[in-house]
Amino acid sequence: MGLISKIFARQILDSKGIPTVEVDVITDRGVIGRSSVPSGTTTGKYEAVELRDNDKGRYLGKGVSKAVYNINKVLNDELKGLYITEQVTIDQAMISIDGTDNKSNIGANAILAVSMAVAKAAAHTTGQSLYRYIGGVYATTMPIPMMNIINGGVNADNKVDFLEFMLMPINADTFSDAFRMGTEIYHHLKNILKEKGLSVNVCDEAGFTPNLKSNEEAIELIIKAIEKAGFKAGKDVYIAIDAAASEFYNNKEKVYYLSKGSKKFDSQQMINYWVKLIKKYPVISIEDPLDQDDWANWTALNKVIGNDIQLAGDDLFVTNTSRLAKGIMEGAANSIIIKPNQIGTLTETINTIQLAAKWGFNSIISLRSGETEDVSIAELSVALNTGLIKFGSPCHSEHTAKYNQLIRIEEELGNSARYYGREFKYLR
């Protein structure tokens, strides 16, 4: 089926103008699989290590020439001659070569780039698209797009605490319809902001960053945009929030600072805040509402609202089966954000999604703020029938490339494509 004959890496730029790794895996039959990896602005401290050069004289220390060397020399020499379709064997070999729990020797960015490039080369070799190669005949679920349209937190210079405010177009027949709904709302929001004399500048993930007075004002503007577009909030379209609470948590004082530092909440007050918010607004999903180490209060919050909304861990779980298993045992959430570069290989990513599904957790496949044109995560969402994606706003080509790939996949699937929207289990 083809053997690995060469692995070659290069340094390219991501959507923030920061270096990242791109890899070509070439087989003895001349098939090439190419993959590039993203990076995040907000990163959980338990993520696998993204290897950087730390040479302040080049790319302000953000270069990835060490990761490139590790691919071109170490991984190329060790993996040559292996069958391209032996994904698990190849991924396990790279984990063993690295020899650390967090992939700090070779770099998770180096390992993931090779892992995904191998899968792409194998798909080409077998004459299949990537989603079909990974998922087989059962890969038919088109995901709900969780579309970022307003940003705050560390992504914006405004008074909004939470990182992302997103749309979830639920009441649609197809993914294409849902994407259209979200895009129309995005443009209506832009017009509303202009009418109010507010900024329509966008951040790295292309959500608007107006200078709003509060998190609640952001939600109310989104509801107005939903209605302007001709849809009903809480029926056709719901709202999702990524709080990224670890970014405004003070570990020394054990408190959360809201309103960009002017309000101070302990964990119980944060729980009360979230309960009030979901009662007042059509919010159906909250990501990282508490700090990544505040396990007991995650469990407390899940007991209160976990039957009503999607409660997703990102920094809490970092796509890691061990941390997910702890969350399952402690009842700390009901959903997980999936970011392959948090863990470092395709195999480990799939294992995490499978563990989540076994215990009734939703899996939400997500991009990072520093993205590339690579559309692998779009393919992966269909391959593994996750039903949920976070690909940023319908703006900037690194985002729209992924959405557009899903439109192509839906077209290819034809009548077998199934849009997950009305099956979302937390509708209320």
The CATH topology annotation of the largest domain reads as: TIM Barrel
- Percent range for helical residues? 25-40%
CATH superfamily of the largest domain: Enolase-like C-terminal domain
Number of domains: 2
Mean pLDDT: 96
* Strand percentage: 15-25%
Low-pLDDT ranges: none
Secondary-structure element string: EEEHHHHEEEEHHEEEEHEHEHEHHEHEHE
Q: Numbering strands along the chain, what is their spatial order in the largest sheet?
A: 5-16-15-14-13-12-8-7-6
**Total number of helices:** 13
- Text of the CATH class of the largest domain: Alpha Beta
- N-to-C CA distance: 49 Å
Please give the CATH architecture of the largest domain. Answer: Alpha-Beta Barrel
> What profile does the largest beta sheet have?
9 strands, mixed
- Broad structural category: alpha/beta
Shape: globular
Provide the gyration radius in Å: 21 Å
Record field, number of beta strands: 17
Concise synopsis of the structure shown:
Helix content is 38%, strand content 18%. With 428 residues, the chain is α/β, with parallel strands linked by helices. Helix 12 packs parallel to helix 13.
